[in-house]
Specification:
Elements (H helix, E strand, L loop, with lengths): L2 H15 L1 H4 L8 H33 L4 H9 L4 H12 L9 H28 L3 H9 L4 H31 L12 H10 L2 H29 L2 H4 L1 H23 L1
Helix pairs in contact: 1-10, 3-6, 3-8, 4-6, 5-6, 6-8, 7-8, 8-10, 9-10
């Protein structure tokens, strides 16, 4: 590796391991303070997006109505994030005065929600649509009502795709929440924008690494939640476990017969 590259890596490691950068000042400019702000921005957007898009996606998939909403939601992904943010700030911020950050927080959350809705909505819709018609007909044949079929049959079978959509939305929101710093809010993007403005490249690279680490940690937690939430019969783990147990039993019988 070139000496210059090694020097940059050393500077980044030095910046990240400097205790002064982890301490939060009264203005929360340290890594821990900005990390908390970043997580808070993401949680607000993800909760709002989940409340809006999950029931809507399940309803569209169950009834087959208003499927055009899925197309519209997917088209929203093409919107330029920073451009929409600046436009909303120009429209909303003048309505707020004083020391409140609502004039910048609301536009930021709107942009993040617009980014998170499409994958959750699309995957919820696709998950319900992909449920086997035979399973659905069997549920109706047992006397279940429409809402019961949705909640007891279609939703459990759609959970893998729903989790996939939520994980995708989470990663996109965490990565895009750096734009909060573009409108004077906090978050890990503060290190990226400040580092770029000051030509402090170790700080800028460290900010990017922190965002990536947060995204990986969040995805790992969601993967663990998915593993223990989705039925093993749906994921196929039960079949693999049964096959493994049967092979172990066969081996034990062979060993017993050989030693007899």
């Amino acid at each position: 590796m070139a000496p210059g590259g090694a020097l940059v890596i050393g500077d980044v490691v030095g910046w990240l391991t400097d205790p002064a950068h982890w301490q939060s000042t009264p203005f929360d400019t340290g890594i821990l303070g900005q990390l908390g702000a970043h997580v808070w921005f993401c949680l607000i957007a993800l909760v709002i997006a989940l409340v809006i898009s999950l029931p809507l996606g399940l309803w569209i998939g169950h009834t087959g109505k208003a499927t055009w909403l899925v197309t519209v939601a997917n088209a929203v992904r093409a919107l330029p994030t920073v451009g929409v943010l600046v436009l909303l700030v120009v429209i909303i911020a003048p309505n707020f005065y004083g020391r409140t950050n609502a004039g910048y927080l609301i536009p930021t959350e709107i942009v993040l929600v617009l980014l998170a809705v499409p994958p959750i909505l699309s995957n919820a819709y696709a998950g319900v649509q992909n449920v086997s018609p035979a399973v659905r007909d069997a549920a109706f044949g047992m006397g279940m009502t429409g809402p019961q079929v949705l909640l007891r049959v279609e939703l459990p079978n759609a959970l893998p795709l729903i989790f996939s959509g939520f994980r995708s939305a989470t990663l996109q929101v965490i990565a895009t929440a750096t734009i909060a710093s573009y409108v004077t809010l906090g978050g890990l993007g503060r290190f990226i924008y400040d580092g770029l403005a000051q030509q402090d490249y170790p700080q800028m690279i460290s900010g990017g690494l922190l965002v990536a680490a947060l995204a990986l940690a969040a995805d790992l937690l969601l993967a663990l939640a998915q593993r223990y939430t989705v039925s093993r019969g749906i994921t196929g783990r039960a079949g693999r476990q049964a096959g493994s147990d049967s092979r172990v039993a066969v081996l034990n019988e062979e060993l017993a017969s050989e030693t007899a």
